[in-house]
Amino acid sequence: MGDGASEVGFVKFITNDEVGKYLAIGTAIVRVDPKYFRGAEVETLLGDPTLAHRELGWKPATDLKQLIMEMIDFDYEEAKKSRFLTDAGYSSVSPYE
Asked: What is the C-alpha separation between 86 and 94, in angstroms, rounded?
């Protein structure tokens, strides 16, 4: 219930007697904690693996070309799913929303 920072999740039903010993219907079990909010949306995320390479000997398992191909393949599969739903008369939500 609620919205944004005031959103709270409550127990609606209990199907396990053991759980019922500890929780009651209507008990708040999840709350939003604003301390975990990002200060602002980050448009560009950049990292430098130099330290991990130097100190740990870490090397990427995927090169840039392979990463790009994986991203393209993922977007293509998502587009096919969206098209399938749209063609069947359903609305489709973008995975980027």
From this structure: 12
Domain residue ranges of the chain, discontinuous segments joined by +: 1-33, 48-97
Summarize the chain as % helix, strand, coil (round to 5).
40, 5, 50
**pLDDT tens digits for range 25-83:** 999 989 988 888 877 777 788 889 999 999 999 999 999 999 999 999 999 999 999 89
State the Cα–Cα distance between residues 32 and 6, nearest whole angstrom. Answer: 7
Instruction: Find all residues with CB under 8 Å of 91, minimum gap 6, and list them.
Output: 85
Residues 76 and 95: their CA atoms lie apart, in Å, by: 12
Pairwise CA distance, residues 94 & 74, whole Å:
13
Looking at the DSSP assignment, which residues form a beta bridge with residue 28? 10
